[in-house]
Design brief:
With about 250 residues, the protein is of the alpha/beta class. The protein has helices at about 40-45, 65, 70-80, 95-105, 175-180, 205-215, 225-230, and strands at about 1-5, 20-25, 30-35, 55, 85-90, 120, 130, 135-140, 155-160, 160-165, 185-190, 220, 235-240, 245. It has seven helices and 14 strands. The chain is globular.
Protein backbone atom coordinates (compact mmCIF):
# COMPACT_ATOMS: atom_id res chain seq x y z
CA UNK A 1 0.00 0.00 0.00
CA UNK A 2 1.03 3.59 -0.60
CA UNK A 3 0.05 6.67 1.37
CA UNK A 4 0.60 10.18 0.06
CA UNK A 5 0.10 13.12 2.39
CA UNK A 6 -2.03 15.50 0.33
CA UNK A 7 -2.13 17.73 3.39
CA UNK A 8 -0.73 17.17 6.89
CA UNK A 9 -1.13 20.55 8.54
CA UNK A 10 -3.13 21.75 11.49
CA UNK A 11 -6.27 23.88 11.29
CA UNK A 12 -4.28 27.11 11.03
CA UNK A 13 -1.82 26.35 8.24
CA UNK A 14 1.23 26.16 10.49
CA UNK A 15 4.34 25.95 8.34
CA UNK A 16 2.27 26.73 5.24
CA UNK A 17 0.91 23.18 5.23
CA UNK A 18 -2.45 22.16 3.80
CA UNK A 19 -5.29 20.74 5.89
CA UNK A 20 -5.51 17.03 6.63
CA UNK A 21 -6.02 14.73 3.65
CA UNK A 22 -4.29 11.39 3.06
CA UNK A 23 -4.52 9.44 -0.21
CA UNK A 24 -4.21 5.65 0.04
CA UNK A 25 -3.67 3.45 -3.00
CA UNK A 26 -2.93 -0.18 -3.71
CA UNK A 27 -3.40 -2.61 -6.54
CA UNK A 28 -7.17 -2.17 -6.33
CA UNK A 29 -7.63 0.57 -3.74
CA UNK A 30 -7.94 4.35 -3.92
CA UNK A 31 -9.42 6.20 -0.97
CA UNK A 32 -8.97 9.30 1.15
CA UNK A 33 -8.74 9.73 4.88
CA UNK A 34 -10.26 13.13 5.66
CA UNK A 35 -10.83 15.93 3.19
CA UNK A 36 -9.90 19.25 4.79
CA UNK A 37 -10.80 22.60 3.26
CA UNK A 38 -7.65 22.83 1.11
CA UNK A 39 -7.73 19.23 -0.14
CA UNK A 40 -8.79 19.91 -3.74
CA UNK A 41 -5.79 22.25 -4.09
CA UNK A 42 -3.48 19.52 -2.84
CA UNK A 43 -5.04 16.79 -4.96
CA UNK A 44 -4.67 18.87 -8.11
CA UNK A 45 -1.14 19.91 -7.22
CA UNK A 46 -0.18 16.23 -6.96
CA UNK A 47 -2.05 15.20 -10.11
CA UNK A 48 -4.30 12.74 -8.29
CA UNK A 49 -7.22 11.35 -10.28
CA UNK A 50 -10.44 12.41 -8.52
CA UNK A 51 -12.50 9.82 -10.35
CA UNK A 52 -10.32 6.93 -9.16
CA UNK A 53 -11.06 7.75 -5.50
CA UNK A 54 -13.81 5.42 -4.38
CA UNK A 55 -14.25 6.35 -0.72
CA UNK A 56 -13.60 9.25 1.65
CA UNK A 57 -13.26 8.19 5.30
CA UNK A 58 -13.91 11.07 7.70
CA UNK A 59 -12.74 11.27 11.31
CA UNK A 60 -14.82 14.31 12.34
CA UNK A 61 -16.59 17.35 10.98
CA UNK A 62 -14.17 20.21 11.69
CA UNK A 63 -13.38 22.25 8.58
CA UNK A 64 -9.73 21.20 8.43
CA UNK A 65 -10.86 17.58 8.11
CA UNK A 66 -14.26 17.85 6.38
CA UNK A 67 -14.43 21.31 4.82
CA UNK A 68 -13.13 20.15 1.43
CA UNK A 69 -16.19 18.01 0.73
CA UNK A 70 -18.16 20.71 -1.17
CA UNK A 71 -15.17 21.46 -3.41
CA UNK A 72 -14.57 17.75 -4.03
CA UNK A 73 -18.22 17.16 -4.87
CA UNK A 74 -18.58 20.07 -7.27
CA UNK A 75 -15.23 19.38 -8.93
CA UNK A 76 -16.38 15.79 -9.46
CA UNK A 77 -19.75 16.92 -10.79
CA UNK A 78 -18.76 19.69 -13.17
CA UNK A 79 -15.11 19.25 -14.13
CA UNK A 80 -14.00 15.65 -13.58
CA UNK A 81 -17.39 14.51 -14.93
CA UNK A 82 -17.48 11.67 -12.47
CA UNK A 83 -19.66 8.69 -13.34
CA UNK A 84 -18.34 6.19 -10.80
CA UNK A 85 -20.06 5.78 -7.41
CA UNK A 86 -18.57 7.62 -4.43
CA UNK A 87 -18.88 6.68 -0.76
CA UNK A 88 -18.35 9.06 2.15
CA UNK A 89 -18.05 7.22 5.47
CA UNK A 90 -17.97 9.13 8.72
CA UNK A 91 -19.28 9.45 12.27
CA UNK A 92 -22.96 9.32 13.22
CA UNK A 93 -24.69 12.46 12.02
CA UNK A 94 -22.86 12.36 8.69
CA UNK A 95 -25.97 12.96 6.57
CA UNK A 96 -26.89 16.13 8.46
CA UNK A 97 -23.31 17.38 8.49
CA UNK A 98 -22.99 16.69 4.76
CA UNK A 99 -26.00 18.89 4.04
CA UNK A 100 -24.66 21.56 6.40
CA UNK A 101 -21.18 21.70 4.86
CA UNK A 102 -22.55 21.76 1.30
CA UNK A 103 -24.96 24.58 2.11
CA UNK A 104 -22.26 26.54 3.95
CA UNK A 105 -19.87 26.25 1.03
CA UNK A 106 -22.32 26.62 -1.84
CA UNK A 107 -25.92 27.44 -0.86
CA UNK A 108 -28.38 25.25 -2.71
CA UNK A 109 -25.78 22.63 -3.60
CA UNK A 110 -27.10 19.97 -1.22
CA UNK A 111 -30.34 19.93 -3.20
CA UNK A 112 -28.56 19.32 -6.49
CA UNK A 113 -28.49 15.61 -7.14
CA UNK A 114 -25.06 14.50 -8.37
CA UNK A 115 -24.82 12.67 -11.69
CA UNK A 116 -23.05 9.82 -9.92
CA UNK A 117 -24.22 7.55 -7.12
CA UNK A 118 -23.35 8.97 -3.68
CA UNK A 119 -23.54 6.80 -0.56
CA UNK A 120 -23.26 8.28 2.95
CA UNK A 121 -22.38 5.58 5.48
CA UNK A 122 -22.28 6.30 9.21
CA UNK A 123 -19.68 4.38 11.19
CA UNK A 124 -19.38 4.27 14.98
CA UNK A 125 -16.99 2.81 17.56
CA UNK A 126 -17.52 -0.88 18.15
CA UNK A 127 -18.65 -1.52 14.58
CA UNK A 128 -16.81 -3.14 11.68
CA UNK A 129 -17.70 -2.05 8.16
CA UNK A 130 -16.48 -3.36 4.82
CA UNK A 131 -16.64 -0.51 2.36
CA UNK A 132 -15.30 -0.65 -1.20
CA UNK A 133 -12.75 -3.33 -0.30
CA UNK A 134 -11.66 -1.65 2.94
CA UNK A 135 -12.34 -3.01 6.43
CA UNK A 136 -13.04 0.02 8.61
CA UNK A 137 -12.90 -0.10 12.40
CA UNK A 138 -13.61 3.20 14.15
CA UNK A 139 -12.53 3.92 17.73
CA UNK A 140 -13.59 6.67 20.09
CA UNK A 141 -11.40 9.77 20.01
CA UNK A 142 -11.63 12.70 22.45
CA UNK A 143 -11.60 16.04 20.65
CA UNK A 144 -14.50 17.92 22.20
CA UNK A 145 -18.24 17.77 22.66
CA UNK A 146 -20.07 15.90 19.88
CA UNK A 147 -22.05 19.04 19.05
CA UNK A 148 -18.79 20.85 18.34
CA UNK A 149 -17.90 18.95 15.19
CA UNK A 150 -18.13 15.42 16.47
CA UNK A 151 -18.56 12.60 17.18
CA UNK A 152 -14.81 12.12 16.86
CA UNK A 153 -13.14 8.98 15.56
CA UNK A 154 -9.76 7.34 15.30
CA UNK A 155 -9.65 4.92 12.37
CA UNK A 156 -8.14 1.52 11.72
CA UNK A 157 -8.42 0.64 8.03
CA UNK A 158 -7.29 -2.60 6.42
CA UNK A 159 -7.00 -3.04 2.66
CA UNK A 160 -5.08 -5.55 0.56
CA UNK A 161 -3.63 -7.17 3.66
CA UNK A 162 -2.19 -3.95 5.13
CA UNK A 163 -3.45 -1.91 8.06
CA UNK A 164 -3.20 1.84 8.51
CA UNK A 165 -4.31 3.47 11.74
CA UNK A 166 -4.89 7.17 12.28
CA UNK A 167 -5.53 8.93 15.57
CA UNK A 168 -7.56 11.75 14.09
CA UNK A 169 -7.49 14.73 16.43
CA UNK A 170 -7.64 13.57 20.03
CA UNK A 171 -6.21 13.82 23.49
CA UNK A 172 -4.84 10.51 24.75
CA UNK A 173 -7.46 7.82 25.20
CA UNK A 174 -7.30 4.04 25.25
CA UNK A 175 -9.06 3.95 21.89
CA UNK A 176 -5.94 5.31 20.20
CA UNK A 177 -3.91 2.34 21.43
CA UNK A 178 -6.60 -0.07 20.24
CA UNK A 179 -6.72 1.60 16.83
CA UNK A 180 -2.96 1.59 16.32
CA UNK A 181 -1.91 -1.70 17.90
CA UNK A 182 0.56 -3.54 15.61
CA UNK A 183 -0.59 -1.53 12.59
CA UNK A 184 1.62 -1.59 9.50
CA UNK A 185 1.46 2.21 9.53
CA UNK A 186 0.34 4.42 12.40
CA UNK A 187 -0.23 8.09 11.55
CA UNK A 188 -0.52 10.02 14.79
CA UNK A 189 -1.28 13.58 15.73
CA UNK A 190 1.60 15.29 17.56
CA UNK A 191 0.26 18.79 17.98
CA UNK A 192 2.72 19.87 20.66
CA UNK A 193 6.06 18.47 21.85
CA UNK A 194 5.28 18.12 25.56
CA UNK A 195 2.67 20.79 26.26
CA UNK A 196 -0.53 19.22 27.56
CA UNK A 197 -3.75 20.69 26.15
CA UNK A 198 -7.25 19.31 26.20
CA UNK A 199 -8.48 17.52 23.07
CA UNK A 200 -5.05 17.28 21.35
CA UNK A 201 -2.17 14.80 21.52
CA UNK A 202 1.40 15.80 22.34
CA UNK A 203 4.49 13.81 21.38
CA UNK A 204 5.59 13.21 24.97
CA UNK A 205 2.32 11.49 25.80
CA UNK A 206 2.32 9.52 22.55
CA UNK A 207 5.89 8.31 23.09
CA UNK A 208 5.06 6.99 26.56
CA UNK A 209 2.31 4.82 25.06
CA UNK A 210 4.16 3.58 21.99
CA UNK A 211 5.37 0.34 23.65
CA UNK A 212 1.78 -0.77 24.21
CA UNK A 213 0.76 0.23 20.67
CA UNK A 214 3.69 -1.40 18.87
CA UNK A 215 3.13 -0.05 15.35
CA UNK A 216 5.47 -1.31 12.65
CA UNK A 217 5.93 2.24 11.40
CA UNK A 218 4.99 5.63 12.87
CA UNK A 219 4.61 8.97 11.11
CA UNK A 220 3.71 12.16 13.00
CA UNK A 221 1.22 14.64 11.56
CA UNK A 222 -0.98 17.67 12.42
CA UNK A 223 1.93 19.53 14.02
CA UNK A 224 1.90 23.10 15.32
CA UNK A 225 4.85 25.48 15.04
CA UNK A 226 6.06 24.10 18.38
CA UNK A 227 6.67 20.75 16.68
CA UNK A 228 7.66 21.98 13.23
CA UNK A 229 10.65 23.87 14.61
CA UNK A 230 11.95 20.56 16.04
CA UNK A 231 11.85 18.59 12.78
CA UNK A 232 15.30 17.17 12.13
CA UNK A 233 15.97 16.60 15.81
CA UNK A 234 13.09 14.20 16.48
CA UNK A 235 13.63 10.41 16.64
CA UNK A 236 10.44 9.80 14.61
CA UNK A 237 9.33 10.19 11.01
CA UNK A 238 7.34 13.32 10.31
CA UNK A 239 4.83 14.05 7.57
CA UNK A 240 5.07 16.80 4.99
CA UNK A 241 2.72 17.71 2.17
CA UNK A 242 3.37 15.42 -0.82
CA UNK A 243 5.35 12.83 1.17
CA UNK A 244 4.87 9.24 -0.04
CA UNK A 245 5.06 6.35 2.41
CA UNK A 246 5.12 2.76 1.15
CA UNK A 247 4.06 0.12 3.67
Amino acid sequence: MRLQFVGCGDAFGSGGRLNTCFHLTGEHSSFLIDCGASSVIGLKRLGIDFNAIRTIFVTHFHADHFGGIPFFMLESQFFSKRAQPLTIAGPPGLAAWYERVMETGFPGSSRTRPKFELSLIEIAPGEIHRIDGVEARPFQAEHGHPGGGGPFLALRLTAEGKTIAYTGDSEWTAGLADAGRNADLFVAEAYFFDKKVKFHLDLDTLARHLPEIGPKRLVLTHMSDDMLKRIGSLPYETAEDGLIVEF
